[in-house]
Amino acid sequence: MTNSARPPDGDWLGTPYLRLERHGPLAHCVVDRPAKRNAMTAAMYFGVRYATNHVDADPDLAGLIITGVDDVFIPGGDLSGGNYEDEWSDLPKFLFMDNTPFDALRQSVKPVVSAINGICQGGGLVIAMLSDLAVASDRATFRAPELFRGIADTSYANILPRQIGPARARDMLFTGRTLDAQEAVDWGLIARVVPHEELMDRATEATIQICRTAPNARGDLKRSFDQYYGLYDRIGMQASLRGPETLEGFLAFKERRSPEWVHPDLRSEGRI
Which residue in 160, 177, 144 sits closest to 75, CA to CA? Predict the structure, then answer.
């Protein structure tokens, strides 16, 4: 069995589209699927979760930086509908939302910093918000397009208002608008924006700063942040993901058209 066909183990993250790099005491989890613009498969989401837990358990590592390649950080899940010959299992059938890294990020013992190099939306934006710190390139953009896909993402509906306030959360969720990096900082969506060519250096500096804080005391603060974000309606989200609107959203995305629920006079050319 080759590396491309087995579950995570050690520094192998279970998919060829993710890699764990060791840079002294820091690990980098690099999303590297440029042919699909870093669109996340189930195994890729699970790999980020595994990387977070793996770094927590490794005494040689002090923290984790998550980043992407080219001009994309993480754009959310892959809706192309293809079969991924390099994936080791069809995770949604077995784990559904439990393959996502969100809970692992909220509970991580060691610091996790998102170095947002480009497009950040969908699950990628949730990863950025739930990291201990998010540092963005000045070329990064941010969007929450789930309602265009027919998905009632109750995780977003719970986390985003606590991050930026309900009025701005409604704006992002109901219109699907795209924010540039400076708007994202101004809104409190992320913490810092830096020149693109300085991104990894600045993210590394920030991670080191966090690593120097007292771990038990930091954990107590993280517990308070976790309580602040609270629980979300998992049952409702699971039902939505199995529902007819999500299916229609998936088909519309794949066929590059507006979903059928859009009034005929309001439909646009191509996908939305």
Answer: 144
Cα 172-254-237 angle, rounded to 5 deg: 50
The domain made up of 3-241 is a member of CATH 3.90.226.10: yes
C-alpha distance across the termini of the chain, in Å = 40
How many whole angstroms separate alpha carbon 103 and alpha carbon 127?
A: 10
Q: Which residues of 13-29 are buried (b: 16+ CB within 10 A; e: fewer)?
A: bbbbbbbbeeeeebbbb
Nearest to 20 by CA among 54, 45, 46, 43: 54
> What pTM, to 2 d.p., does this model score?
0.92
Q: Where are the domains of the chain?
A: 3-241
Q: Is 29 helix (H, G, I), strand (E, B) or coil?
A: strand
- DSSP, collapsed to helix, strand or coil, labels residue 179 as strand
Tens digit of each residue's pLDDT (9 = 90 or more) over 190-224: 999 999 999 999 999 999 999 999 999 999 999 99
Q: How many CB atoms lie within 10 A of CB 214?
A: 8
Q: Distance (Å, rounded) from C-alpha 30 to C-alpha 46?
A: 14
